[in-house]
Amino acid sequence: MSEKHIERSYDAASQKMIKKADEENIKIAWDRYDAMQPQCGFGELGLCCKVCNMGPCRIDPFGEGPQEGVCGATKDTIAARNLARMIASGAAAHSDHGRDIAHALILAAKGEAHDYHLKDTEKLKRIAEIYGIDTQGKSIEKIGEELGESCLSEFGRQHGELRMASRAPAKRQALWRKLGITPRGIDREVVEIMHRTTMGVDNDYKNIINHGMRAALADGWGGSMIATELSDILFGSPKPIRATVNLGVLKEDQVNIVVHGHEPTLSDVVREAAKDAELLELAKKYGAKGINIAGMCCTANEILMRHGIPSAGNFLQQELAILTGSVELMMVDVQCIMPALSGVANCFHTKLVTTSPKCKFPGVEHMEFKEEKALEIAKDIIRKGVENYKNRVKERVDIPGEIKGLVAGFTTENIFHILGGRYRATFRPLNDAIISGRLRGAAGVVGCNNPNIRHDWAHISMVKELIKHNVLVVQTGCSAIACAKEGLLTPESAFEYAGAGLQEICEAVGIPPVLHVGSCVDNSRILLILSEAIKEGGLGEDLSDLPVAGAAPEWMSEKAIAIGFYFVASGVYTVFGTPHPVLGSENLTNYITNELENVVGGKFAFEADPIRAAQMMIKHIDKKREALKLPPLMYEREPVRMSNNG
Ligand code: SF4
Ligand code: MSK
Question: Which domains does the chain have, with CATH numbers?
Answer without folding.
Answer: 3-58 (no CATH), 75-235 (1.20.1270.30), 247-396 (3.40.50.2030), 409-627 (3.40.50.2030)
